[in-house]
Amino acid sequence: MLTITLLIVSIWCGVSIGSANIPLEVLWNKAADETAANILWKIRMPRVVLAGLVGASLAIAGAAFQGLLKNPLADPYTLGVSSGASVGAVMTLFFGLSIPVVGIYTLPTFSMIGAVVTMVAVMSFARLIDRSLKMETLILTGVIFSSFLGSLISLMVALTGEELRQIIGWLLGSVSMRGWPYVQMIAPFVVIGSVMLWTQRRELNALLYGEERAKHLGVNVKRSKYLILAGGSMLTGAAVAVSGTIGFVGLVVPHMTRMIWGSDHRHLLPLSFLNGATLLIICDLVARTIIMPRELPIGVITAFIGAPVFSYIFYKQRRSKGVRA
Predict the structure, then answer these.
(1) How many other C-beta atoms are found inside a 10 Å radius of the C-beta of residue 119?
(2) Which of 32, 110, 201, 293 has the greatest number of beta carbons closer than 10 A?
(3) pLDDT tens digits for 202-238?
(4) How far apart are CA 131 and CA 137, in angstroms?
(5) What is d(CA 168, CA 138) in angstroms, rounded to the nearest whole number?
């Protein structure tokens, strides 16, 4: 109940606060103030809904990755999945790709392909180095792939012409001036990806005890891994396609949710979804109001929050290992 209340409050703050304050009655009576109603329904509401869907997608994907890898530092950003999705999206913008059959879904489609390919590559390379997939190995592998993919993006940006401003603005991470078409673009993938992860909630609980134990409990480990990786990559790719690279949401939200409500994925997944939406709506509100009339990229705000939390989790893990040793 608290989570839903916070989400509702964040939505109202997101649509009402700004350079022009929106009265509450405009929600049900557009005639009360037509100018305010236009601002609310054509600019702020789609922006808030989009921010919520992006935050929810990244958070539930992060929760699933952390459960699968049994690693609280795993998230789409630190594993390089966001970078892979970014390459897919930038290539679409750079080459002007369009698939007639899918239309407006071309961008998220290529973004998801980039996310899936990167996730598979990171996991495969990390397993070659360390069969046990230790935390340090996964994080370092993610950094390596992110650096390489970042160089590919830089190359395309250097070679681009008129698309430069569009690509640079997209890379900074933002939900500004996106509108309802972008909500329409991400919504189907949020639903499909979230349902895929939700169907694996019991399997994720079993995997917390190790793959062998999960097998004894009747879990088809290989199938579950594919579904979780596919669902998480789909959500990440769709989020990156509409908002650019926004880091640390998938790290911070599941970690804080786990601390308060526990590690049971039957609760962790939906609560991370809701809390992720709340966090990014608030971050977007801060990004567009803190230095009005100018706006900050939303990725700047999430990095300010995420980097200290990442450091704290890493320090806590290393400290606990040192104590046990």
Answers:
(1) 25
(2) 110
(3) 999 998 887 788 888 888 888 888 888 889 988 998 9
(4) 10
(5) 28
| Encoded tokens for 299 | 């990725």
Residue type, 290: I
Neighbours of 90 (CB within 10 A): 28
Q: What angle do CA 124, 186, 42 make, to 5 degrees?
A: 150
Burial of 124 (0-12, 13-18, 19+ CB in 10 A): exposed
Distance CA 158, CA 181 (A): 29
> Which tens digits make up the pLDDT trace of 159-189?
876 666 667 766 777 888 778 988 998 999 9
d(CA 38, CA 67): 43
Q: Would residue 262 be called left, alpha or beta, if left means φ above 0 and alpha means ψ between -120 and 50 degrees?
A: left
Alpha helices in the chain (DSSP H): 2-16, 34-39, 45-69, 81-95, 106-129, 135-159, 164-171, 180-198, 201-207, 211-216, 221-243, 249-261, 265-289, 298-324
Helices 2-16, 265-289: crossing angle, 10 deg rounding: 20
Backbone φ and ψ for 290, nearest 5 degrees, come out as -65, -30
In angstroms, rounded to a whole number, what is the distance separating the alpha carbons of residues 197 and 65? Answer: 10
**Whether 96 contacts 161, CB under 8 Å:** no
- 183-214 as b/e: b if 16+ CB within 10 A: bebbeebbeebbebbbebbebbbbbeeeeeeb
Tell me the whole-structure pTM to 2 decimals: 0.87
